[in-house]
Design a protein that fits this description.
The protein has 13 helices and 18 strands. The chain is an alpha/beta fold.
């Protein structure tokens, strides 16, 4: 008996060691585990986009918390809690694709929610499509994502050209209207397309682009880049960016003493860390957005967008970024589709195919506004917004909706703030 006990303990220890060393061994969920919706997320929590990706993790956690407070997702007369399984893709496209495959084949999650950034989402959605998992992103908008004929890919942001359009429009409608502009963008799918989108709007409105440059994603010396821009003396600078790029551009512009009349970014100023890190130097910067707290919408999970906003601020002690609202809308959309079909966990492959079909049929009001996906999985066009940092917070400056503030223009020199 003692020999058997010792052997059993050794086998148990070996099994544990193998489980730790070889995490890709598939384990079928037990009956108890199957009574919850297991939702997989591969998102950047480290690397160059770590701060951006953490925004989505916060949004998903807030949604899961709200759902579980009610006992879970209601279906067939019961309630089923949700459990997030989150992996760090380290800002890597290849890593994200590998993790999505793990979530589908090893963890066997019921649903997938999207990661951060168009490059990553482009790679991950190919894997989700292969395994027929609906994948909804609130932080990717590059047009090529939607040009592959995929059935299981969804997104709540406008396509890139539309997402960033308002940033260029607010400047071409400024007085006096700028005559020249420079456009730079990072070597990143979303950032490059943003730069192209900016160029199109400016050219359509007769603004001459005197400098256009796509710089390496890993660029270290931003001062040389900004000195080059400064020599052309453009009145406005528009940047295809994510948060890290926007911070580096602002710091380098100050360092070389370049203060154009206006500066705008495809992404960055709406993230709380932009103001937190730059302080007064963040003032006057303009960023693309698709949601602001003053917009009021009803929502099937949170009641209203205002309720979500207050709950977010209470939990995280900061202002939300619009991608967090868009990501939450993805989670809500999947929840609504599940409830419409009366699905219960664990979801089968057939369930997920039906779910994708149902998401293509959705048309409902959420905290983010109307959610309706086109045949390609992109959201039906939402009005793009531009916000400007004024007195330490982002305010709506374009279009001129109720509650919008006048654009502060031109931007003063750095030493006069």
């Amino acid at each position: 008996m003692r020999v058997r006990t010792t052997l059993a303990r050794r086998l148990a220890a070996l099994a544990l060691a193998v489980g730790l060393v070889l995490p890709l061994v598939a384990v079928r969920p037990t009956a108890a585990q199957a009574r919850e919706f297991r939702i997989g997320v591969a998102v950047a929590l480290s690397g160059i986009f770590g701060r951006d990706g953490t925004l989505l993790k916060e949004a998903y956690e807030l949604w899961a918390e709200a759902v579980n407070e009610r006992g879970g997702i209601e279906s067939r007369g019961g309630r089923y809690p949700v459990r997030l399984i989150v992996y760090d893709d380290e800002s890597s496209e290849a890593k994200s694709a590998q993790l999505v495959e793990r979530l589908a084949t090893v963890d066997r999650v019921d649903l997938l929610l999207g990661g951060f950034g168009s490059n990553v989402v482009f790679a991950s959605t190919a894997v989700a499509e292969k395994y027929k998992y609906p994948y909804c992103s609130g932080a990717a908008s590059a047009n090529p994502i939607f040009e592959r004929g995929f059935k299981f890919t969804f997104a709540t942001l406008n396509k890139t050209f539309e997402e960033v359009r308002a940033v260029a429009e607010v400047f071409v409608n400024a007085r006096p209207k700028p005559q020249t502009a420079a456009i730079i963008g990072a070597e990143h799918l979303f950032a490059k397309l943003s730069a192209e989108g900016f160029r199109k709007v400016l050219q359509d409105h007769g603004v001459r682009v005197v400098h256009f440059e796509i710089f390496p994603l890993a660029l270290a010396d931003y001062t040389s880049l900004l000195q080059k821009v400064k020599r052309r003396n453009p009145e406005v600078l528009l940047v295809g960016s994510l948060l890290a790029h926007s911070l580096r551009v602002m710091k380098a512009a100050k360092e070389v003493g370049y203060a154009p009349k206006g500066v705008g970014f495809s992404f960055g100023p709406t993230v709380p860390d932009f103001v937190k890190e730059l302080g007064r130097d963040a003032e006057y910067a303009v960023g693309a957005s698709e949601w602001v707290p003053s917009l009021y919408y009803r929502d099937p999970v949170f009641g209203t967008s205002r309720t979500w906003y207050e709950r977010f601020r209470l939990k995280y002690r900061k202002e939300p970024d619009y991608t967090q609202v868009a990501a939450t809308a993805c989670a809500v959309a999947q929840q609504v589709a599940v409830q419409n079909l009366n699905l219960v966990p664990p979801l089968s492959a057939e369930d997920r195919e039906r779910l994708a079909e149902e998401m293509h049929r959705l048309d409902f009001q959420s905290l983010y506004g109307r959610v309706k996906f086109g045949p390609d999985g992109a959201i039906v066009l939402k009005p793009p917004l531009a916000v400007q940092i004024q007195d330490g917070r982002g305010v709506l400056v374009w279009p001129k909706l109720q509650g919008a503030k006048p654009l502060r223009y031109p931007m003063p020199p750095w030493d006069r703030r």
